[in-house]
Amino acid sequence: MTAMGEAMNRIVPNLVRLARKPGQVLLVAAAVPVAAFAVLTTIFGTGATSWTGWLPLVAALVLAVPVALLAWRRERLQRTTASLDPHPTIVEGGGEIVVIDVTTAVDPRRAQLESELGALSEAYAEGQVRTARWLPRVEAAQRSLLRAAGGTVNAPYLKDDLRVTLLAFVGTVAAIPLGVLGTFVTAFALLLR
Asked: Is residue 183 over pLDDT 90?
């Protein structure tokens, strides 16, 4: 694993831990109005005389999809990062002294540095290729991070497509005002019956 992969494996679990509470607040803030909207539209639909009375319930279910998807992705991310060790173990070296003949041997620090630079340049080159049809920069950034980390074995939290998670996040944020608006409109329609 490269130093970049090790750094990512130290940083990402901490970021996930930091975002745990705000993520939960966001999901609750979106789920409550969407659930209330769904309940009121079910009541509204049962008293409707035509099929159009069930359309608000379809809207509530459409709003529930990104909220449920984000909750599922969030849970998977937390399970994946929980297996990563947040505290690296430091093992003391032995008491052996190794003498390197600089005239014939390659400097191990230089070889490691060249390996790191090679991995970073490959990751940069991977980030420049944008082949996706939708959100190509997000997909390129994910491929670049995967290359820098050394694949999904070293960075299992990058296995899921970040574009889907990003759209689920945007849909969840949009579901809050739309769920509140739908709840009020449906409640008002029920009062007018």
From this structure: yes
